[in-house]
Amino acid sequence: MADLDDPPLPWSTRLWFAFACFFRVLFDAQFAARAWRARAAAALPPAERGAPEPAERDREGGAPRLPGAAEVAKKEPAPQAAPAPQAAPAMTSALQLLALLQREGRLVDFLEQDIASFGDADVGVAARMVHEGCRKALRGHAKLAPVRREDEGARVTLEAGYSPAEVKLIGNVSGSAPYRGVLRHRGWRAEEISLPTPVAGHDASVIAPAEVEL
Questions:
Q1: Which of these, 19, 182, 168, 164, lies nearest to 90 by C-alpha position?
Q2: pLDDT band for position 2 (50/70/90)?
Q3: 42, 93, 137, 139 from 143: Cα distances, Å
Q4: In the chain, what percentage of residues exceed pLDDT 90?
Q5: Torsion region of 62: left, alpha or beta (phi above 0 gives left; psi -120 to 50 gives alpha)
Q6: Which of 128, 108, 132 is nearest to 210 (CA)?
Q7: How far does CA 28 lie from the centroid of its chain?
Q8: How far apart are CA 111 and CA 108, in angstroms?
Q9: Contact present, 94 and 18 (Cβ < 8 Å)
Q10: What sections of 44-88 are H helices per DSSP?
Q11: Does residue 199 carry a pLDDT above 60?
């Protein structure tokens, strides 16, 4: 369980981590079980950390007097009902964004479709439609900006103290900063994001409802 004094993660890291956890939970049953146990443990009240009171000593012999069953029953707190399971806010946001990409661009349908038997032309047409819809959803709810402003292919220098979360070193990495290399990808940073407010009773795990034509 995380310490309450841990420094908060930056927004961009939380967004990436939410996506990573979503797909890991979706496709890795063992990881999902561990995450569920960690979520349940975090919802329990913290254990009392006070030192135990010294046992009372018998007035005549001086030996410790153990508390009786009635006293133990009084000290033990009454069992509390476990809280109802709820999706974490980060998980809900990731599911909302995935639902938007599905609604506008049919992203989940495209990824779950077996395209091995389709021709390149058919895949290209489908990918163009998915790209157009997903781009519309992404630009409508998120403002993105490149991490590095230089053009890809430009020579860059990373001075000591650069952020490993913003820049990943690839290729033959050795020695210490400053590093000099070629920018292969500018990266992306989420500057703003605005997702719809879930209504009461909304099940975020339903990415797209089933459709029945009457």
A1: 19
A2: very low
A3: 32, 15, 11, 6
A4: 52
A5: left
A6: 108
A7: 14
A8: 5
A9: yes
A10: 69-75
A11: yes
Task: Tell me if 169 sits within 8 A of 149, measured CB to CB.
Answer: no
- SS3 label, residue 144: strand
CA distance 199 to 207: 15
Tokens at residue 61, please?
């012999």
Strand, coil or helix: what is 145? strand
Nearest CA among 162, 199, 159 for reference residue 179: 159
Residue with tokens 């029945």: 212
Residue with structure tokens 């920018």?
183
Distance CA(92)–CA(96), nearest Å, equals: 6
Range with the poorest average pLDDT among 16-25, 30-39, 120-129? 16-25
Per DSSP, 196 falls in state P
| Torsion sign (Cα): 7, 8, 10, 14 | positive
Residues 76-108 as b/e (b if ≥16 CB within 10 A, e otherwise) read eeeeeeeeeeeeeebbbbbbbbbbbbbebbbbe
Confidence of residue 202 (pLDDT cuts 50, 70, 90): confident
